[in-house]
């Protein structure tokens, strides 16, 4: 006897009646080519009902618009994917868990190499984050303060 909770709908059509999850591990070729292939089984079940534009929604409520490329029975996250990858500093080995609700939205969780979910940026999704390497950081040159800076320092001291 099988309970209704354990039964799955394995029909091949329509949108998902309950959330569908899949994951992808970022590999070097995904990063180099700027696109990510959706799993074949997911595409065979839901690919015909996917719109040409989807939205990736993150836990910080940021949404990213991504265009899909459909070719030879495969579906790829294409235009907009590279910017998503760069903004979130995704690297080889990062794990992404996708939840598809049968619409144009995929909820995404990102785990880094520590196997923990990342701290998502609080900035707006359309702003670019910049990776900073420690070698790129130069000590600031010391300069003499300008007359205006001296005056503002004196004002602060006077109001204490």
Automatic annotation (TrEMBL):
It comes from the Eukaryota. Residues 21-114 form the TF-B3 domain. PROSITE patterns: B3. Residues 130-160 are annotated as: Disordered. This is TF-B3 domain-containing protein. Gene3D superfamilies: DNA-binding pseudobarrel domain (2.40.330.10). It comes from Phaseolus vulgaris. Its main location: nucleus. Keywords: DNA-binding, Nucleus, Transcription, Transcription regulation. GO terms for molecular function: DNA binding. One of its GO terms (cellular component) is nucleus. It is found in: Nucleus. Residues 147-160 have a biased composition (Basic and acidic residues).
């Amino acid at each position: 006897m099988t309970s209704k909770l354990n039964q799955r709908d394995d029909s091949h059509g329509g949108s998902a009646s309950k959330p569908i999850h899949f994951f992808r591990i970022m590999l070097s070729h995904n990063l180099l080519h700027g696109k990510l292939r959706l799993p074949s089984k997911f595409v065979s079940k839901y690919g015909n009902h996917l719109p040409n534009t989807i939205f990736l929604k993150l836990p910080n409520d940021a949404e990213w618009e991504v265009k899909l490329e459909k070719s030879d029975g495969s579906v790829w996250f294409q235009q907009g994917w590279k910017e998503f990858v760069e903004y979130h500093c995704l690297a080889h080995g990062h794990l992404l868990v996708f939840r598809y609700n049968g619409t144009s939205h995929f909820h995404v969780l990102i785990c880094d190499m520590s196997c923990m979910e990342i701290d998502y940026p609080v900035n707006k999704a359309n702003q670019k984050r910049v990776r900073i390497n420690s070698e790129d950081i130069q000590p600031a040159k010391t300069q003499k303060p300008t007359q205006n800076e001296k005056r503002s320092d004196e004002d602060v001291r006077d109001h204490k």
